[in-house]
Amino acid sequence: MPARRKVATVAALGVAPLALTALAAAPASAHGTMGDPVSRVAQCYAEGPESPKSDACRAAVAAGGTQALYDWNGIRIGDANGQHQALIPDGKLCSANSEEFKGLDLARADWPATSVSSGSYTFRYRVTAPHKGTFKVYVTKSGYDPSQPLAWSDLDLEHPVATATDPVASGGFYTFSGTLPARSGKQLLYAIWQRSDSPEAFYSCSDVSFGTSGNSDGGGTTSSASPAPTASAPSDEQIEDGADKSTVEHHGHGDADASTSADPTTAAAANEPNAAGTSENLAETGTDDSTPYIAIGGAAALALGAAMLFASVRRRATGDGGRDAR
Asked: Cα(320)–Cα(326) distance, rounded to whole angstroms?
């Protein structure tokens, strides 16, 4: 076989597997959870995935394992496109119907809760990669029973307690305001972050306990009728310490190696508007997730082109071989 034909054959054989590897290696994105009021997954991560302190978090680990807690910012559906109720069945809202996070769906009255009261509330959503989109937070209806599986009908979907579109990330959080209605005892806040630059959506459940006194920062006294451990969010140090055990990828947001887990603390710091306007630029352009999609398309084209080249080389080699025989 002539040298030129050999080179073409080697190139075709070499490019195809590389292209297919790129397709298989395209990472899933995962970018946040409610930080205040503290989400279930954030609370359990704060307690320590390997040895959680509360009965509820120990039960969650027993049901779903520790990896769900290290992947605390990964409760998502990549192609949600606003079809939340169609994609998530009753009883699986907190996990977004993900097997990995099934421990968060456990129906228990003892989930650690954030003390709140009716009135204005400032929500803080911890973000590890910013995107354009809309946040909606819903509260459970009066009469909610936390010992029963959470159903869509338990939420007051007609009256979200907070709605925010394209807030700017600062200090690793999206911050936006809402108003909590009159409730008593143990309730739950369900947050949905639907991106507008992608069909992807993120979900979180935050257990709260309504008291009797108002506070503009969401404070209040815990209702004595529904005692629960007090919730606490993970510190930046805790998040950093567990980053190497996460399977979550951020498409390069704060992570120099696209094949490894991202460091949420580094990513959050890098996404602050005060740090060279990073978060605002990413949110406006929506380029954070477009790169892997383009890469996937390019990889597919490379694989197809390589296959066609290899087939062409083989046909030519066969034809030349026939002529040489003559």
From this structure: 10
Regarding whether 63 and 178 lie in a shared domain, the answer is yes
The token pair that represents 27 in the structure block:
């990472």
Please report which helix (H) or strand (E) contains residue 268, including its range. helix 264-270
What pLDDT, on a 0 to 100 scale, did the predictor assign at position 240? 83
Report which listed range, 121-125, 171-175, 272-276, is most confident: 121-125
The residue behind tokens 């939420």 is 155
Do the bridges between strand 201-210 and strand 114-116 make them parallel or antiparallel, or are there none, so unpaired?
parallel
**For position 147, which CATH number holds?**
2.70.50.50
pLDDT digits (tens, 9 = 90+) for 239-271: 888 888 888 764 433 333 333 333 333 333 333
Query: Which residue segment(s) compose the domain that 120 sits in?
Result: 30-245
pLDDT higher than threshold 50 for residue 169: yes
Q: What is the DSSP string of 33-71?
A: EEEETTBHHHHHHHH-TTS-SSHHHHHHHHHH-SHHHHT
Pair 216, 317 in one domain:
no
Same domain, residue pair 49 and 182 = yes
Q: Is the pLDDT of residue 272 over 50?
A: no
Tokens encoding 29: 């994105």
Q: Which residues of 104-115 are buried (b: 16+ CB within 10 A; e: fewer)?
A: bbbeebbbbbbb
Tell me how many domains the chain contains: 2
* Structural domain includes residue 266: no
In the block, tokens 């989930």 appear at 111
How many whole angstroms separate alpha carbon 51 and alpha carbon 54? 9
139 pairs with which residues across the strands?
189
Residues 58 and 204 grouped into a single domain:
yes
Confidence of residue 157 (pLDDT cuts 50, 70, 90): very high
